[in-house]
Design brief:
Length: 318
């Protein structure tokens, strides 16, 4: 069921059930992070491998302070600047957090979403919510309640409808290694903004074999229709005659029908492009296409996170 009833969402979560929740990045599939059975059902519904840890969501960082060993100075600075918001911090945790949440790691991922409905819900709960993106494992993250309902609707009792996601791309994940900030996933908070607050950060490209971020598999966010990345004018020539979809940054092309084209931001705005990316990929994936052609954005601001998702979508299925 889809609705806006916070009471009902709260009731389900308190008895160990799952609720899909809106956040400003993407929708999450939420359960009580301190209840191992609830967390285990999240993995089951998503068909997600148990080695891929979950982010815990709270209305305020200090509300989960009891579950953490400590909060490094730089983490504090980032939290003050960007929480609530599209930032996830990897922080040393204690044993109160079930191992299933962190896949055994001694760090837990913590996020304070900014979406008003989720904030209200989290503020009313006595426990944090473990929540991965509310999509079947390996598919594109949902940015509307409808997206969640289309794929997981029959498996979750309630979808809290908070409208379309304002950011549209997952949170940026930041951890600390010997005091040095490291970005493990590029996301809705740009690296430039992070660096304004704490100075230079390392960016760690992730892969299936990276033990620090076990879940960051290369082929992720993938549509079913194969996606090719490159120069669109060239690709359109090579693949002329096929049933094509197109994802472009600013331009539309005369070679194929407009209905088959997703122009992420006609005005060249990265925020708008991020908001439209997953929605556009989904829409094209639902058409009867042979191939989706896409181009990369400039490698700055949210363009970096968008390019990361496009590259993952283009990776051949493993
Ligand atoms: O914007 C977001 O972050 C959304 C919304 C719902 O909050 N959530 C999200 O969760 O994208 P998910 O599970 O789809 O992606 C979380 C990523 C995974 O790749 C996982 O491996 C990594 O975070 N992660 C979570 N906990 C971790 C930990 N303790 N150590 C290393 N990586 C972790
Ligand atoms: Mg995900």
């Amino acid at each position: 069921m889809i609705g806006k009833d916070l009471e009902q969402a709260k009731e389900i979560l308190e008895r160990g059930g799952l609720v899909a929740i809106p956040t400003e990045t993407v929708y999450g599939l939420a359960g009580n992070a301190l209840n191992p059975e609830a967390v285990s059902s999240i993995f089951a519904v998503k068909n997600r491998p148990s080695f891929d840890p979950l982010i815990i969501h709270t209305s305020e960082l200090d509300k989960v302070a009891d579950l953490l060993m400590d909060i490094p100075e730089e983490a504090r600075l980032l939290a003050n600047a960007f929480m609530p918001g599209p930032l996830t911090l990897l922080l040393p945790r204690n044993e109160e957090i079930p191992d299933i949440v962190t896949a055994g790691s001694d760090r837990v991922a913590v996020r304070v979403p900014r979406h008003p409905l989720s904030r209200q819900l989290l503020a009313q709960l006595a426990f944090p919510l473990a929540a991965p993106s509310a999509n079947p494992f390996g598919y594109i993250s949902p940015t509307s309640a409808r997206h969640v309902a289309d794929q997981l609707g029959d498996q979750i009792p309630y979808i809290l409808d908070g409208g379309d996601c304002e950011v549209g791309i997952e949170s940026t994940i930041v951890g600390f290694e010997s005091g040095q900030a490291v970005v493990y996933r590029k996301g809705g908070l740009s690296i430039e903004k992070i660096e304004e607050v704490i100075g230079g950060v390392k960016v760690r490209a992730h892969s299936a074999s990276n033990p620090t971020a076990p879940g960051m598999l290369k082929s992720h966010y993938a549509p079913r229709v194969p996606l090719l990345l490159g120069d669109l004018t060239t690709l359109l020539k090579i693949h002329a005659g096929k049933r094509l979809g197109l994802i472009s940054f600013e331009s539309t092309f005369d070679e194929i029908p407009v209905e088959n084209q997703v122009c992420l931001s006609p005005s060249g705005n990265m925020e708008e492009a991020a908001r439209n990316l997953f929605k556009g990929m989904r829409a094209l994936d639902q058409m009867d296409l042979e191939l989706i052609l896409a181009e990369m954005l400039p490698e700055s601001g949210l363009g970096r996170a968008i390019n990361d998702r496009l590259k993952r979508a283009a990776a051949p299925p493993h």
